[in-house]
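Holo prediction — zinc ion.
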Amino acid sequence: MATVLLTKYVALFEKLHRNKTKAKGAAPHKPILLLAILHEIEAGRISSNLVPLTPELVATFKALWNTLVPVDSGWNPRITYPFRYLQQDGLWELIKNDNAVTIQTALEPTLNQLVSLCDGGRFPSELWGLLSDSFARSALNTHLLSFYFSGNETGIIEDQINDYLMAQADKLKAQAQAKFRAKKIVETTEEYFVRNRLFPKVIKELYSYSCCVCDISASIENSSVIDAAHILPFYEFHNDDPRNGLALCKNHHWGFDIGAWSLTDEYTIVVAPKLKNDLVFIEHGKPIAMPKDESCIPIPTALQWHRENILKAG
Ligand SMILES: [Zn+2]
């Protein structure tokens, strides 16, 4: 049965609808996306049949593109094309709130738009079954490479993926050297998309994966009790400067967002007078733990805004 299925999908993988132009030939995007997904499953970063657009997938797509597509191909390495159009091949559906959706925008959506329009792509369950099997995965990988890329090897791309993600995380930290902006700006570049989604990773690392209020630290598999909280709320300010972040446990994150507590410019805790705090949920006047990197400490401008707008007075 598995062999019949594998033969079926090997044949379907050969029939990907691809844009063609005289000058550039057939577009490499869809086979590269499939290879990237195979790689991410292999690396353990994709483990369920809803594949979201993540910084890791973007980085893997880029690394494979750089390895397999000639520099002068003339194609633009945009992951949004195949992510959206793999639907045409019946190989997956885009999913939003557990329902299949069709994206109807005249213009090609940016990464940020695509992520807001769908939660990810989902394979037919029989294909997901194959992708979850290491033998079938390896066969599909080899076949994609031989059919679309004349059997070229992808080499070891894990270093390239890490280098790209680390470079973007460093760029995010480097923002902390620039003037802090409290005005919303909307950027649409791929790098911005990646950096924005690396904010949690950067903040948690800066605070050593511990809550800066209570020092708690716990995680299981990919899930952690620690959140990266924005001081100026992201939905309003779109500010991913590390100086706008705090690593907080779920409890203290809740309290911070609801205005049960805030911080002074000297980084000590201010508790809202109304807070019922009998079991000492949070201690007034206690200093918080600081991030490893001094340039990334929370900026007073943001703390002042939080005290004035979020902390519950009276
Ligand atoms: Zn805490």
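READOUT: Residues 211, 213-214, 216, 248-249, 251-252 surround zinc ion (CB under 6 Å).
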